[in-house]
Amino acid sequence: MTAPAAHLLSRAAAARWRPGLSGSVHHSEVFASSGEASGAGLALALARDALTNTPRDALPEAEDRRSVLWVQDRAAMRLSGRPYRPGLPDWLQGRLIHVAADKPEDALFALEEGLRCRDLACVIGEIAGNPRALDFTASRRLTLAAEKHGVPLWLVRLDAARDLSSARMRWEVMAAPSATPAWDARAPGRPAWRAALFRARNHPPGEWTLDDHGQSLSVRPATPPYPLGLAFAAGARSLAAG
Amino acid sequence: MVLVSETAHGPRIDSANRAAREAGARAGMRLADARALYPQLLAVPSDPAGDRATLEKLALWAQRWGPWSALDPPDGLLVDVTAVAHLFGGEERLLADVQAALARRGFAACAAIAPTAGAAWALAHYGPERAILPQSSPSGGGGPPQAGRRGCGEDRPPPSGPAGLPPPPTGEDLPTPLAGLPVAALRLDDDVLTVLRRLGLKRLGDLGGIGREALARRFRDRKSPAANPLVRLDQLLGRVPEPLLPVVAPDLPLVQRRLMEPIRHRALLDRVVEDLVGDMVRALEGRGAGARRLELGLWRVDGEVIVRPLELAAASRDPAHLARLFTGRLDAIDAGLGIELARLRASWCEPMAMAQGDIEAAAERHGTSLSAMVDRLSVRLGPRAVSRPVLHASHVPERAQRWQPPLAPEPMTQGQLRFHARPLKLLDKAEPIAVLYASPDGYPQRFRWRGEVHEVARVEGPERIAPEWWRERGAARLRDYYRVEDGAGRRYWIYRLGLAGDGRGGMPEWFLQGLCA
To answer: Which site among A79, A96, A97, A148 would you substitute to test the B interface, given the most B Cβ atoms closer than 10 Å to its Cβ?
Structure first.
């Protein structure tokens, strides 16, 4: 009786998402409010996490200098501003190519062209609301292009409802109070987010508080951990369902 | 009207037209001094780069009068007219043709023909109208005849040498029309002219009178021709050669298709453009070049010309890529009664080495290259939509970043100081916020932004950023920046514009400028 339980436990622990787990997830969505930069912040942190943990076949010791495409539509730029070079994280400095699209259709076109480009490290998109052009078909196109060409995409959805999408991981993020900095207790600290993974193909959903340490992400569990045993192994699945 | 350029001591006049000269303005004068003489003086900023570009185009155009031409900055051209004057019916009629052709294009010109470039320059600038120095000068037999011309937007200053003086005795056999010219006709620097004036040498004939050895001794340590009157005199007379750098017209790749039947349908047009691109790629391959800018011209039956330019982010010679880019630009074309001629011109080429196509690698590496992606995006979204943020040396946050084309090399900067944290995103325009309550030491405690009240939990600041007084008006107020975090953990970058009682407006206002990650 104990051996299968331990087996279940380890498998569930392995399936649980944690930073540094380089899954082959190429299309993620991050839902965020437009009144904060948490969506872009978490997307960049996840992108950095994935890029540093994905082994590159050619010249692994060489520094990654591939460009990063950041696509925004007009509403997203108006609501949450444009990327600001002096404030970008270090790994992104000098690698960013920004696309200012007028309409969501143009933004989707730019996203897809970016996913087809072999010289890009990843693509970040920001689209406000639930435009008609971004339906399930459009997200399916993005998923297929990303998985065919191996370029990961993080699409930030500002002020959007959770519509149908084929994204492999879908996050809902909001800002969390930051940890106290060492030198000035009254100042804001390093970014922290309260992130909920509400749909993922390979992982059970969960909720975490993520701290960005500049080079890495660390995790504090936001929800109380499941009780050990059968209920933990079952993840979010109802025990009654068997 | 005068043309002015900004200097450290205020605007200075570069050139003045006839009316301004009559009002007292001179080149080299300060604009304020000229305005004191004539307050209604109209000042326009001068454009040296544009003048230079115009002069280069004019030099190419001037090759209608001779096989090659050279620039004489800032406002002159030299054309070699050796043995071509008979084509225009003699040298006098050649000069008349030059002046008439330039006058039709709005240029006032002074032209002259002489055996050497130096003599032609001297006569065009200081000699009589349409001066011609015959070839029969005994000393200057070697040089080819030149036409020195001076074309500028305005007419030239009146010649300072009166023509009626009796020719001074020429020690060396200086041709008579040259001996009466002022020494400024030798193309010397200003300080050398000052030296000569103090020595009492005012005309070219005077230089001949004092003997060659005296001149050589006085200017023995001046090697540059513009500083040594003797070298210039020898160049004027053709005793020493004066190499000139001719301008050469770039030979642009151009392919065209004349169509048997005018085409009116889109599918046929796509086919024609594909063929044209194929021809262009072959032409570019022959030169080892790649196109950066292409211009597609479509001539309609009724004489209308439709031009579709296309600019590429990197030199390209890939027919499929070019044809695909043009396909996006052909949608809104009105073919009218039909298109009978299509022409493709590569007006900007860059060298591009031949690369061996690797069949296996091409099959394995799918996807597009970075430059191809940028091209496709710029064609659909407009050239300014795709850009790269670069640092700019400025204290003011919104000016510390500029946008440039994505594949252009990054400009050299000093780097950025790491003392202060900056937000991840900056709003296009800082949004005013209402600070409802600020603590007595100036920290904001509660503010309203976009209709929502934020309680400030943590704050860092102020970081004081003063306005750039050298480019803003005197009433610009300083800014105190605060990095704040509200109770829910949202982090913002806000600033207070001005101080209470700084005498530059009313109470300070608050703005939210950036969102921190």
So the answer is: A97
